[in-house]
Specification:
- By secondary structure, the chain is α+β, with helices and mostly antiparallel strands.
- The protein has 2 helices and 5 strands.
- The chain has 2 domains: 54 residues; 55 residues, no CATH class.
- 36% of the residues lie in helices and 23% in strands.
- It has a 5-stranded mixed sheet with strand order 3-4-1-2-5.
- α1 runs antiparallel to α2.
- The longest helix is centred in the first third of the chain and has 23 residues.
Length: 111
């Protein structure tokens, strides 16, 4: 089991550091990326898929916003680990997904 986990971690590291850069690298753009938004989204999906491999079946990971009952929504969160069995599915027509903080186990950002 530990050997498989190490292998999956190595694959994630290679994809996150090397493959993502080679896919979006640009010699002409100022920030050296052909499309910074898609580069970030690609890395977010890599992290989400990596985390899903280690989560119990009742938990899942997605991107979205935290929306407390009596407050304003959070900024966009790249990785929200939530309990799919107790979470209401709150999605707006524009595709924004919102989670009550009570069903979330963890929140993370991809940098």
């Amino acid at each position: 089991m530990a050997q498989i986990a190490r292998y999956k971690a190595k694959v994630f590291k290679d994809e996150y550091l090397d493959i993502s850069l080679s896919l979006f690298e640009s010699q002409t753009n100022r920030n050296k990326l052909s499309h910074a938004g898609e580069f970030g989204r690609f890395r977010e999906k890599l992290l989400q898929n990596y985390l899903k491999q280690f989560l119990p079946a009742r938990l899942s990971v997605a991107e979205g916003f935290l929306v407390p009952l009596l407050g304003q929504r959070s900024t966009q969160c790249d990785a929200i680990i939530y309990d799919r069995d107790t979470s209401p599915h709150m999605e707006s027509a524009g595709g924004l997904v919102m989670f009550p903080p009570e069903v979330c186990a963890a929140v993370g950002e991809v940098k």
